[in-house]
Amino acid sequence: MIHRKNNVLFERIKVITSLPDAASADLLDIEEVDRLNSSDKLQAVINDAYVSVVGGKFAYVGKDRAKAVNVFDNSKYDIYNGRDLVLWSSMANTHGHIPMTLMRNQTDDHNLHDWLFNVVFPMEARLTPEHVYHGTVLGLAEMIRSGTGAAADMYYHSNSVAQAALEAGFRLNVCCDGKKEGADGKNHVVPEEISDFQSHWQENFGDLIRTSLLVHSVYLYEPYLYRELAQQTSDLGISVQVHISETQKEVDDCIAKYGRRPPAQLDNFGLLSDSTIAAHCVFLDDDDRALLARRGVTVAHNPSSNFKLGSGFADIDAMIKAGIRVSLGTDGAASNNNLNLYQEMRLAGFLAKGLTKDASCLTAPQLIRMATYNGMRGLGFDNTGCILPGWTADLQIVDTNNAAMTPLGNIDAALVYSADSNYVESLMVDGVWLMYKKELKTIDEEYAIAEANKFSASLRA
Q1: How far apart are CA 87 and CA 92, in angstroms?
Q2: In sequence order, what are the residues at sequence separation of 6 or more whose Cβ sits closer than 8 angstroms to the Cβ of residue 62?
């Protein structure tokens, strides 16, 4: 499906942007930045800004209207009045199982291993590609409405997930399972299936779709299968999505079986690299953190899911100090029960401050960076996640004209601690409006809800 890219001039709008690593406002040629966090240089804020989007890219970001207009070079453009609005990057949800929206509010109040083996797996045995497609469309609609324009998905029937994302114009890093039962009665990797999946989606639709390999965890497969999976990461250069150290039981069982903790054992198999997304990482020690940092792994922090499943408290402050790139995820709607990254930002910040007993730990600029720039890097998307000239036009517009965000004060604090996903007015991905002034443009929401209800009921029949 082809979606029309929009040329837009945002007028007199407040802009907040994370900055790329080791960068400053001067290096990025942003004019008249009103506030730069000079201590860590994470973020810039521009008041009364003009932002020009041309052909899916930010062509101008600054305070000179004449320059903002000139970049359109006589092409037609729409004007978006920015009064009482904030423009910032769309968010990236770096861990989830999107089709599990069909299981929302039906698998609650179980600890992880009971939840997974006794509740979820029996329901998943009934899944068809149609279930997965309609569950994905519902999840995409929810994420778009809450300011998220990119996500990781670790699930089954991945062609259905990717197709739904492509039709919606949504960015996706999607897993391929690539395992089938062989003549020996055991599951084996099918290299051709993985390479065909990668070439179809990433080579044909690489602007929006990235592919990765589903490696569920260190406990679900036999050792030979991890070796086969690792061989594919080497042969194809494909990234990996994996759960790591989500529970103490996982750690204890891994040590008992292999004599190593989960990060070390997965590294021994050859599955940790700078294109690995490691979800949860609740139970890490100093050696684990040093290893993940050394390998360049992106950790997807899922505070709501970790709490709800009784898994524990991930020490994000220690991860950041160890040099790990940390992002945010929601996990699936069967264990959260929503896909709202605004809630994850706020909860992650509160959790870090409570664990360390230090209110200065994990600041609002850091949380915004985790939700945007870090997440996009982890998903494999370059030149997005920041509002900067030449970067891809992925953005959201937040309406601040409400009681809960008044007075606005520091906008980064307002977005993290005061904002609600309901205040998201518009969302753009790659220069295409996925939601414009509260109206979804690429998904028929009423139909999506009706179909999701129908397919969800069939899982319980």
Answers
A1: 16
A2: 30, 31, 32, 46, 49, 50, 68
Contact 28, 388 (CB under 8 A): yes
Question: Are 57 and 154 members of one domain?
Answer: no
Is the dihedral angle over the CA atoms 396, 397, 399, 405 positive or is it negative? positive
User: What are the tens digits of pLDDT across the range 398-452?
Assistant: 999 999 999 999 999 999 999 999 999 999 999 999 999 999 999 999 999 999 9
Q: Are 30 and 46 within 8 A, CB to CB? A: yes
Range of the domain at 141: 91-379
Q: Are residues 313 and 389 in the same domain?
A: no
Q: How far apart are CA 45 and CA 156, in angstroms?
A: 41
Number of domains in the chain: 2
Same-domain status, 392 and 362? no
Judged on CB neighbours under 10 Å (0-12, 13-18, 19+), 346 is: buried
Burial class (CB within 10 angstroms; exposed 0-12, middle 13-18, buried 19+) of 430 = buried
Distances (CA, A) of 117 to 68, 157, 316, 336: 56, 19, 28, 17
Provide the sign of the torsion angle of the four alpha carbons 58, 64, 65, 70, taken in this order.
Answer: negative
Same domain as 115, residue 39: no
* 426 shares a domain with 367: no
Q: What is the pLDDT of residues 69-117, one digit of tens each?
A: 999 998 999 999 999 999 999 999 999 999 999 999 988 888 888 888 8
